[in-house]
Design a protein that fits this description.
mainly alpha, 190 residues, elongated
Length: 190
């Protein structure tokens, strides 16, 4: 039996996810199709890449940021700098400044210390993840350099195997090559 034309058949249903996202969800009027989302501007993309995009720009209530223009609530570095500057130059209390800029007092103290130690650049968050090799400590590096000095014919793969025998953990031969390059580079004049 054929269905009347007023009822959709399964043939009109989206078959791919990309097609499905183009159909509005009647149960959620606030949910828009992907194509209807506003495109982010270049500054927002740059702030996101540098990890300095303020995740809660609506919490900033300071009047300088409300006016727009030069002050941008999305720029967390600028928000933190202005928060610290407000207390130092304008004499605002730390609690009031932190509240006006949508941050905690702890964030104020951290931003103030970072500015004191490293200037404005210190407000940019450091890259996430490990900062150095956790296996190749100074002692292991010295041992590798000693082995290489004792027998210059040793290759990185052989040194990696010796490290595993001596210290009980594996290191990649490429890590050994980088260590040797750093050690050789620090010995050369210049």
């Amino acid at each position: 039996m054929r269905r009347p034309h007023s009822q959709p058949s399964h043939e009109s249903w989206p078959t791919r996810r990309s097609e499905h996202d183009q159909w509005p969800d009647p149960t959620r009027p606030d949910k828009r199709p992907r194509d209807a989302r506003p495109a982010t501007d270049r500054k927002e993309q740059a702030l996101r890449r540098s990890r300095t995009l303020n995740s809660r720009p609506g919490d900033v209530t300071d009047e300088r940021f409300a006016a727009g223009g030069f002050f941008d609530v999305r720029d967390m570095v600028q928000v933190k700098y202005e928060m610290v500057r407000t207390t130092r130059e304008d004499g605002a209390s730390i609690t009031a400044a932190a509240a006006a800029f949508g941050l905690s007092r702890q964030s104020f103290y951290q931003a103030a210390a970072a500015l004191e130690e490293g200037g404005l650049a210190a407000l940019v968050p450091a890259r996430p993840g490990p900062k150095g090799g956790h296996k190749l400590t100074a002692g292991v590096i010295a041992w590798i350099a000693g082995q290489k000095a004792a027998d210059p014919r040793l290759r990185a793969a052989q040194l990696a195997a010796l490290v595993e025998e001596q210290f009980g953990f594996r290191v990649h031969p490429r890590s050994v090559q980088r260590v040797l390059a750093r050690v050789d580079g620090s010995k050369s004049p210049g």
